[in-house]
Structures are given as C-alpha cells and as structure tokens.
Specification:
Length: 362
C-alpha cells in the first residue's frame, strides 16, 4: 500500500504514505467491528419472554397468576409473575394518598393523574422485574390495556379532556419506544362476561370499587373484546385479529389450537401488531383449591403458548411477525364452542363504532 501510494499516487515522503495507510487500515477495522457488533445484536434472540395477562376488572387475573403459575408443576420453574401494583396506587407518598380511591370519587378531576401514575408504576415495575432468570415473565396487564381500554373509556366518558389525552399521547409513544421491555411478546386474555366479572367484584369487595357499575364493566368488556378478540366490521369486513395460517395452526398443541390469534388491524398500536394472543375462557367459576385438573389445564395452555411463541422467536425463518404478514384476513371464530359468546354473537359492532384511534393510535 505504501509503495502504491508513492509510485502511483505520487506521495513523495514515505512517512506521509505510511500515515495514510495506517489511517485507512484503522478506519476499515473500526467499520468491520461496528458491523460485527450490530449483526451480533440483531441475531442474538431475546432470551426471556414476557406475556401480559389481560381481562376485565375482577375477572381473576391476580388469582390466575398466583394459583396457576406458583402452584403447578407445569409452570413452577418456567414462570415468574409480576402482579399489578394496585397497592402502590392505594398508598402514594408519605401522606399515603389513595389515588385509586380519588379517581373513583372524582373521575373527572383525577382520571389523567391516575392514568399517568399507573403508567409510571408499570415502568418502575418493568425495570424492577427485568433481571429475573426464569424463561417467562407473566405480568398482570400492560401499558396497552391502560391505553386501549381505560384511557379510551375515561376519554369517551369526558373524564379526560382533549388537552389531557393529547398530553398522554404525546409521551406514550416515545416512552414506549424507548422501553422495549414494556412491549409483551404475547398476550393472554382471560375472557368472561361483564355479569360474571360484576358478581366476582361484589364478592371481593375492594373498598374503592363500591361505585363501579355493571354498565362500566360492560364498557370495559367491549374495549377488551375489540382489542383482543376476533371480530368483524360490518362495513368493511376487516378483521382486527387474524387466524393463524393452517400449517401453523396444525403445529399448535391441541390444548391451544382454537384459541391463539395474531393481533392486527388499523386500531392496533404499532408496537403490538402481529403479537400473538391466547384467549382463555374464564366464564366458569373455578375453585382452584379443589379443581386441580382445571388449574393444570390452564397451566398446560400457558406452557404450550410459551413454547409456540419461543419457537417462532428463535427461528428467524418463521418469525411470528413474518408469518403473520402473509396471513389473509379471514373470519375467525372459536370453533370448539368452548368460549363464552355475548348474546350468541361474536361480533360487537358497537365496539368498532366507538373506536377512534385516528389521533391516539396511528
Ligand atoms: P384491574 O387491572 O382490572 O385489576 P383487578 O385486580 O381488579 O383484576 P383481577 O381481579 O382480574 O386481578 O383493575 C384494578 C383497579 O384499577 C380497578 O378498579 C380498575 C382500575 N384501573 C383503572 O381505573 N385504570 C387503569 O388503567 C387500570 C389498569 C386499572
Ligand atoms: Mg388483580
């Protein structure tokens, strides 16, 4: 190289030619190092998976997490649970403010403040639980249920005004994109009728929820449904959730074959497009201390869903997102009759009509 620079390029002094040669060598080495590092980062699969357990108020998310994950052989070594930080909402700061109570007492005054605090406590909890070693982190709810269910509901009820929802949305996306740990690898939707949730809520008697009505639970139910359960728009035939392609469906374990879907659609937040969801029927009242078989059946379904998502993530040729891109929209309804269906209908048109993600969920 030095000789080439001197004889062909016309650099007279040898030390000049040497320093140019060294400079080029170092730059090339630096570039190569960067390339290797970024390829390494891209190709290292994320080791631990996170699923978010979703469902209406008092459907039984906390019980499900505690009884299923901690008390079954199928999940004991696999799962670490992260319950929702409701206790933090009930006891804020030195003065022990109860912001959950303040919200229910004066929703118009406190909806924004409460939703803001809910988000912050989720970020803290995600950070605190990020060092775990078990292969699956099961979290109670996510920032997406906050946004797609509760924030939507309080906004529609005019408990959050236009300025407040704009402020919420102005930080939601940037913060979520900086903290990928907030984006679950899968969702588990515990599904039951609003009536059943209302009965369970009355039984557990959480002091702050004395004023929560059946209508409010119906509203929250519709929001969960239109987000996590397949339905068809009457006008356009658009599906919010896609069925798996046949070859994948066949590879699914029979325990979950009828209840795994991909989230997709215009109303879906971009960071959870194509994320798989497992829908579990939680309509029957199950006494987990007695019905060990029912508990194990749920545990098996969670374990199988974990295997499914993990396999897709580990196999670059069959990334969940890549496969989902090829899915043709088609109507999907659970066909083994196991799932509860509101009034015999799967499609909640009202849920779609009330959707307005034009500003909040681009
Ligand atoms: P949930 O998150 O539904 O939890 P839960 O413990 O009531 O449900 P489960 O029995 O299934 O474990 O709600 C907790 C309380 O917080 C409930 O009163 C609803 C309220 N809440 C909001 O108002 N906004 C929110 O964004 C969230 C996440 C909860
Ligand atoms: Mg709970």
């Amino acid at each position: 190289m030095v000789e080439f620079l001197q004889s062909s390029v016309g650099i007279v002094h040898r030390n000049h030619a040497e320093s140019i040669t060294n400079f080029i060598k170092e730059s090339v080495l630096e570039d190569l190092k960067d390339d290797c590092l970024s390829t390494e980062v891209q190709s290292t699969p994320k080791k631990r998976l996170t699923f978010s357990v979703e469902g209406n108020i008092s459907v039984g998310k906390t019980t499900f997490l505690q009884r299923i994950a901690n008390e079954t052989l199928e999940l004991q070594d696999l799962v670490e649970i992260v319950p929702e930080p409701v206790n933090k909402w009930q006891d804020v700061g030195w003065d022990h403010f109860n912001i959950l109570d303040a919200f229910y007492a004066e929703p118009q005054r406190y909806a924004y403040t409460f939703q803001n605090y809910v988000f912050v406590t989720r970020v803290v909890q995600e950070r605190e639980s990020s060092g775990g070693i078990k292969p699956l982190r099961l979290m109670e709810r996510s920032v997406f249920s906050d946004r797609m269910v509760f924030v939507r509901t309080v906004h529609e009820a005019n408990w959050m005004n236009e300025m407040e929802i704009s402020i919420y949305d102005s930080w939601f996306d940037p913060v979520v994109s900086c903290l990928p740990g907030l984006i679950p690898d899968g969702f588990i939707y515990l599904r039951a009728s609003p009536d059943t949730c209302h009965k369970r809520m009355l039984l557990r008697k959480r002091a702050e929820e004395g004023g929560v009505t059946l209508e409010y639970l119906q509203d929250l139910h519709e929001k969960h449904e239109s987000w996590l359960f397949p339905f068809q728009s009457g006008n356009h035939g658009v599906l919010s959730v896609s069925k798996l392609p046949l070859h994948i469906e066949c590879s699914l374990h029979p325990d979950i074959r009828d209840c795994v879907f991909y989230l997709e659609g215009d109303h879906m937040h971009s960071s959870i497009q194509k994320v798989p969801a497992l829908v579990l029927d939680c309509e029957p009242n199950i006494d987990f201390s007695k019905d060990i078989e029912a508990k194990r059946q749920y545990a098996r379904q969670v374990a199988e869903f974990f295997e499914f998502v993990k396999k897709k993530k580990d196999d670059p040729a069959h990334k969940v997102g890549e496969v989902a891109k090829s899915i043709q929209p088609q109507l999907l309804l659970p066909h083994r009759g196991g799932l509860w269906v509101p009034d015999g209908k799967h499609f909640l048109e009202s849920a779609l009509k009330s959707f307005d993600f034009s500003r909040a969920m681009p």
